[in-house]
Design a protein that fits this description.
The protein has 164 residues and is mostly helical. It has six helices and no strands. Helix content is 74%, strand content 0%.
Length: 164
């Protein structure tokens, strides 16, 4: 129960903060629903591929929660790059990552590195040979995170009405 409470704090507090900050500024509206839906889909995919290889049942919840939380935070940042640039104004001074596409690519690369690092850590802990997280998988998840705002417009018509 204690872990669930912290998980709720980690999800709800940034959303409330983002809504209050967006209400104060005249910047474009935050894309919360699309970021949450894409984050849950990507987190679910990452958790499913990681669960195949986690040997200790008690560790499965921790790895799944980690996958979901990171996917939600990463997709929120990718969908709301202007908000992220407003939070960290120093990023606007760096030429390569001061653009929307640059930030999205950087977040995708960080996601790929994170996924591969978690895969290696799981392999070292469980001492198993074949993990689902290959380099293709890590770049696939990183690419999904980086391209999720573009993919969202493609999958939007196929989603049920309550997810739009």
């Amino acid at each position: 129960m204690k872990h669930l409470r912290w998980l709720l704090y980690l999800v709800i507090v940034p959303i409330v903060f983002a809504q209050r900050t967006a209400a104060k500024s005249a910047s474009p509206e935050l894309q919360l629903k699309s970021a949450i839906v894409c984050g849950l889909i990507i987190g679910l995919y990452e958790a499913i591929t990681l669960m195949k290889d986690v040997a200790v049942p008690q560790h499965k919840f921790g790895h799944a929660a980690h996958a979901f939380i990171y996917a939600l935070v990463a997709t929120f940042a990718v969908f709301n790059v202007e908000f992220v640039l407003g939070l960290i104004p120093a990023l606007k001074t760096v030429p390569v990552i001061s653009s929307v596409l640059g930030i999205r690519i950087i977040i995708g690369v960080i996601t790929a590195i994170k996924v591969h690092a978690v895969s290696r850590a799981t392999k070292a802990q469980a001492n198993i040979s074949g993990l689902s997280e290959t380099w293709f998988h890590t770049f696939f998840v990183g690419g999904l995170v980086a391209a999720s705002p573009y993919i969202w417009n493609l999958i939007l018509p196929a989603l049920p009405a309550f997810l739009r």
